[in-house]
Amino acid sequence: MPTCVTRRQLLQVTAASLAAPHWAQAQPFPAKPIRYIVPVAAGGGSDMIGRVVTERWGRTLGQTFVVDNLSGGGGVVACQSTQRAAPDGYTLMQAYVATHGTTPATRKVSYDATRDFTPVGMIGATPNVLVVNASVPVRTVKDLVEYAKQNPNGLNYGSAGPGSLTHLTMELFKQATGANILHVPYRGIAPAINDLMAGQTQAMFPGLAAALPHLRSGRVRALAVTGKQRSPLLKDVPTLDEVGLTGFDAMQWYGVAGPAGMPTAVVKQLNETLSSVLKAPDLADKLAGEAVQPLSMSPEEFAQHIRSEVTRWSALAKARNIQLDD
After folding, report:
1. Are 87 and 258 in contact (CB under 8 A)?
2. Which domain holds residue 114?
3. 112 shares a domain with 136
4. Concatenated DSSP letters for 251-302?
5. Hey, is 172 helix, strand or coil?
6. Coil, helix or strand at residue 92
7. Which CATH number characterizes residue 187's domain?
8. CB atoms < 10 A from the CB of 215, how many?
9. Is residue 13 part of a domain?
10. What is the pLDDT of residues 53-108, one digit of tens each?
11. Which residues share a beta bridge with 260?
12. Pair 170, 104 in one domain
């Protein structure tokens, strides 16, 4: 016989069905693990930063972060994956100076670094160091500029590759000083530093973490650092601003972004919890291994930082005719 359903039972079933999706949406964030895309292969310094931060961030949020290493294209692969993800806060990426600065400035990419992402917050930054081989007879930035002008075509500088921060920072230096120093690109920072120490090249702008062991060995000499303040790891080395070259606050920085259109409340929660993680002394100790100083920013401040980075490096690339598309 057919089952009879009373009007009251029907109303109860309808109310329950309507309430189910509302209940699902109302679950507090985060209700499941968060995918965290790191745009480099596992094992390097950038990967270490991502894992150290997310391990502590996950404890603060009460949820697991799953690190997903997506290298390739100077961060383009990671950016594309993040850009296509649902803007619900469950996919984030470790944005850094390449993905949201130098790469879109020097290459045609399929994403817009400012419009296609939701800035969450900064993690930290480390300066680049202007160094010379110990045999080069200069002790200051002024000495280097004068030596380069007295020896046209006599100085070479190495970089981690075309369009890298090590390349663009030296081109910014050449633009500001008029020094003629020939670019020798390498496939990564390690071979570039090896040739610097061997005297095959004479100058370079490596990141501080890469430079420190060789500065301590005495095989290379530091002349200045980028950034607004001296590095606590190189207290006797002036900033470029101190020696009269303004506009060299550029740093190797790391931050967090998600797809465009993330809910404001989710972004606020992520930013506040990330900021609390960055205040922990033990995190600063861990990041010191990569010479990174924690640097907290609001989403709005980080958005402005990204805009200024894209503007800075795009203007330089145009002025120096640096376009890396085939």
Report:
1. yes
2. 34-125+252-319
3. no
4. -EEEEEEEETT--HHHHHHHHHHHHHHHT-HHHHHHHGGGTPEE----HHHH
5. helix
6. strand
7. 3.40.190.10
8. 19
9. no
10. 999 999 999 999 999 999 998 899 999 999 999 999 999 999 999 999 999 999 99
11. none
12. no
